[in-house]
Amino acid sequence: MVNREDEFLEDALYIRQLAQKHNKFFEESIPLIASENIMSPMAMEMLLTDFGFRYAEGLPHKRYYQGNYYVDQLEDRVMDLGRELFKSKYVDPRPLSGTNSNMAVLYAFTKPGDLIATPSLSGGGHISSASFGAVGFRGLKTVNYPFDIDEMNIDVDGTIKLLKQNKPKVCWFGQSVFLFPTPLKELNDVFNEIGATVVYDGAHVLGLIAGKQFQDPLREGAEIITGSTHKTLPGPQHGIIIGETSEDKWKKVQRGVFPGTLSNHHINAMAALGITLAEHLQFGEDYAKQIIKNAQLLGEELNKYGFKVLGEKNGFTKSHTLAVDVSAQGGGKYVAETLEKAGIILNKNLLPYDDNKKSQNPSGIRIGTQEITRIGFKEDDVKHLAELINDIIMKNKNIEKMKSEVAEFKSKFTEIQYCFGKFRPYQYINIYK
Ligand SMILES: Cc1ncc(COP(=O)(O)O)c(C=O)c1O
């Protein structure tokens, strides 16, 4: 056998170097992707534990593998924390991601060929609820709720009509561009009339719900909430399902998770989730308030600079997210790429009036304030951020100069907030040497 240790070590070090460069890139940039966040130091520590190398199929105390003595205690505690935070009867902390949570719930409540009602993609719906996503994978047919562009929300009267006509088995709510609470209460009568299961995909707004600053879906008509745990809830890349439903339906959800759609449930991430839930019980309300305050202010400031921020009628947003029509500034692709060159990271996005075919160059950009809030942005910082975006896009100032200004500004945010312990964000953790 030829010894190629040097060559392979070089490959390994190259990969490690990419990770270090990536951390530095984010350290110097302003992160505004609405679906991302960073974890607390104690939660981050969990990802490096031996929990990450084990299996624990099934439910606590009824496993198929040995070695789960502490895992069972962990999972019990994570479920308790989840139930306390969401004031719910049931919590399943096993799904690996938001999409996986959605798949488990679809598996539980539908059969191939069933019809379900979902938000449209251009109305902010996530790909997992689209016909070519998890919903399609389950072989389901879909009807989309009509969207009211002025309200930046689903149209209530049109939705009532649609549900009465089509009687879907599941009414699925929640978006990836989620500016305003879903009018669940207004739809309650029709849910009861058609006997549909109501599922609310709270991936984006989970931390705002838990921080009591958005809406309370389980008290407004939803039986199940699915979610990722790494957006406004600043935990690990993982998933969760929360239920206020019958025991019978909940058992179906649990079987949808395992053995339906996963085997191993990434116990290290579940431990990190538990710590995030405990931290959110302590700090979540203040955090969620500041996230929304920052988003609303950023909307106002960008609007003053002449950007077309959607949802103006209702104060631009009641969440962490803004949707901005930048077709007059060169389109979503150009604007997102230009901002990236200056160290401001966000994504292009379809707007409600865009054809799905425009997804590679849509009219809009999406902005989220949850990560900048996590690292300490307050009102004056948000105003300065709007000024930077204006300088780059409206005034076309020199990109290299702007990149230095962005990095300089970012360097003053040196601590992760709303958590136990202290840690410098984007710091590379070196355990190799
Ligand atoms: C509404 C919604 N649901 C589900 C997901 C999928 O979550 P994950 O990336 O954790 O699979 C997303 C992702 O952004 C989302 O926006």
UniProtKB/TrEMBL annotation:
Q: Which InterPro entries match?
A: PyrdxlP-dep_Trfase, PyrdxlP-dep_Trfase_major, PyrdxlP-dep_Trfase_small, Ser_HO-MeTrfase, Ser_HO-MeTrfase-like, Ser_HO-MeTrfase_PLP_BS, SHMT-like_dom
Which cofactors is this protein said to need? pyridoxal 5'-phosphate
- Which E.C. number(s) belong to this protein? 2.1.2.-
- Site residues (Plays an important role in substrate specificity), renumbered to this chain: 230
Q: What is this protein called?
A: Serine hydroxymethyltransferase
Start and end residues of each Serine hydroxymethyltransferase-like domain: 16-389
EC class of the enzyme, as a word: transferase
Native source organism of the sequence: Acidiplasma aeolicum
Keyword Amino-acid biosynthesis appears in the UniProt entry:
yes
Q: Name one GO biological process term.
A: tetrahydrofolate interconversion
Query: What NCBIfam families does the entry give?
Result: PRK00011.1
Pathway membership of this protein? Amino-acid biosynthesis; glycine biosynthesis; glycine from L-serine: step 1/1
Q: What is its main location?
A: cytoplasm
Q: Name one GO molecular function term.
A: methyltransferase activity
One Pfam family named in its UniProt record = SHMT
Q: Kindly give the PROSITE patterns that the UniProt entry links to this protein.
A: SHMT
Keyword line: Amino-acid biosynthesis, Cytoplasm, Methyltransferase, One-carbon metabolism, Pyridoxal phosphate, Transferase
Q: Which residues carry this modification: N6-(pyridoxal phosphate)lysine?
A: 231
Organism classification: Archaea, Methanobacteriati, Thermoplasmatota, Thermoplasmata, Thermoplasmatales
Q: Which residues bind (6S)-5,6,7,8-tetrahydrofolate?
A: 121, 125-127, 247
